[in-house]
Amino acid sequence: MPDPAAQVRAQRQQVRLERKARAIAARPVGTAVPPPLGVSLGGDLPPSWRAGKYVVLPDHAARLPELAIGQSGAGKSTYIGRRVYLAAGADRQVIALDGKGDRGFVAAITDAYLAARPDATIHVFPDAPLDGWRGDPAAQVNRLLGCWAWSIEAACYREVCVLALRLACSQPGPPVQSMGDLVNRLDPAALARAWAKHPAEAGLAKMLAPKLGDVAMRVANLAAAIAGQLDGTRAIGEADLTIVSLPTMANRGDSEAVFRILMEDVGHWVSVRKTARPAFLVVDEFSAVSGARQPAIDVMERGRSFGVPSLLSGQSYASLGGPEEADRIVSAANTLALFASNSPEDLARLAGSVQTAEAVLQAEDGRWTGRASVTTRARHRVDPNTVRQLAPGQAVLISGGRAERIQVIRAPGANNDLALPRRPFAVISRVPARALPRQGVTPRQETPAGHTVDSSGPDPARGHRSPPVGEEQPPDDRDNQEVS
Length: 484
Known about the structure:
Blueprint: H1 4-25, E1 38-43, E2 50-51, E3 54-55, H2 59-62, E4 66-69, H3 76-89, E5 93-98, H4 103-116, E6 122-125, H5 137-145, H6 155-169, H7 179-185, H8 188-194, H9 199-208, H10 212-226, E7 241-245, H11 252-273, E8 279-284, H12 293-302, E9 310-314, H13 323-332, E10 335-338, H14 345-348, E11 353-364, E12 367-380, H15 384-388, E13 394-399, E14 402-408
Parallel strand pairs: 4-9, 4-10, 5-7, 5-8, 6-7, 8-9
Antiparallel strand pairs: 1-3, 1-14, 2-3, 10-13, 11-12, 13-14
Helix pairs in contact: 3-4, 5-6, 5-11, 7-10, 8-9, 11-12, 12-13
């Protein structure tokens, strides 16, 4: 029969475990272990994910895509800051895109990167403009077309825009370097003069002349919305850390257009312009810009081939898009960081199931008859109720059909907790810095058999409300003090 006293003891033990994990997460992490993601609260991830009481990110997992899902305030930003800190320590370039325009996010990511690489260069957009005209004419045209949504009825007009932009961007002479230059090239007389010595293109320009006014008006409207922000001298990927933060909610039309162009530019940088240096891409709340979802998925699926793993974050499974898009994202993600959520069922089942034994006792008139039967059944490795009850800063890491519950460690300097020197934004120079120990180098440690994130029967943590994460001072990983 169920033992209420045992349930109370288990609940108290869980409370003590979480309290101890928060205390450990707030202490400085010594150099004897690789920089961890968080403190373990129990689970069955392989030994490569463990370093004593800590959970680390193995080297093979650091090179693969990730997905972070959780409701607002659950701790996704803390996790992103920690991942940026680890990427900087591994000497990776980082490109972070935020569709909310949150200045706190910019400050936290900047401090996290500088904590590992104090001499790194930072480029924050739109504080400093970007050069959005890198690449050949075809890349420029595709980048511009990405900012407009086309209906089926407008397919014919889209072909007109494509041809006009191709003629304007690929005409003889210097390449397009600004939106104003592009608008001037769409003038019928100017386009005719540019292709005067090329009969085939001159004929196309003459045929398009009556419609060039409509295309020029559309491009001029886009130029007014961008307001020179994409006419800078440095492009995405030229700084150690590039942050794009646009308020798409406050200024939806103009900000979404710029965000879509930059997402297309990120795809071009990943596949064409990137150097041999490894990189890391973060897209926070990528569902905030519907038109940017497809480029983000493309980079997530194929970025690994170019040495650019990505981290996408959202608030729920529904934020991943339609069934096809959600399936592509979930299938591409090697690691899922699942934070508190009201609807975690679709994601919790990714951890797989385990076989458990159940005993059925026969009672008669309130007394056990001595007869019993035992059967086995499959249950989810991660109980959705466990996910619903996660405290801020706690997450369930799911990878390879296994799971581990962790207390995420804040990155040094996150939320301006540490006063760190900052270099001027958009100043491009690179000074080599000592990298942190390589991720994934961990001593082997056996995991107790049958240890899973959830437990059979009532959840021992049910009804307990843990105090918010962050009451203690955040750890300074640069300190060499050992954790006892």
